[in-house]
Predict the structure.
Amino acid sequence: MNFLAHAWLVSAGSDDFLYGNLIADGVKGQDLSAWPDATAQGIQHHRRVDAWVDRHPNVAGARRRAPTAQRRYAGIALDMVWDHFLARDTAGMVAQEEIVQRCYRLLSARSAPNRLASMMPLLVQHDWLRGYADFEFTCRAVAGIGRRLSGPNHLAALVPWLQHDYQALEQDFQTLWPELFSTLGLADTSA
């Protein structure tokens, strides 16, 4: 899951908890004592969700369908594609607008750690959370993240596969998302 999905999952929580979920990928290590308690809990929650998603049979199956040469990077692309399906399916909903505005407010008011520090202002400025509803935007974002990694752009090389496998990926998400809500004991307001 990526930013939008993590925000949906914790939308009932405090701003600090939401912020922890949004910045978790930029926080290294297990020692979270430098963070306020609710933010540290948000970081831990994000990590638990990611671990659950990574073990899900649909995600494992999608990774196996990815081209062998880029399979190692497929998880990054899949996280962004899951946000695409969520953004597409909830576009125009009041709940999505509230979540997006809340995320942008938090990310504009607080600096993000490490490698996310330069990315978060771009996320807000270019309205990525709404932009993910457009699949071509999502594909450009996947390739853009790949430019930030060292070496060849393996994420950009995954874009043709994402386009070709779109229907299967959509089916994977349609199973994955409700199961995640059920596992967390949440009511899915995105439906």
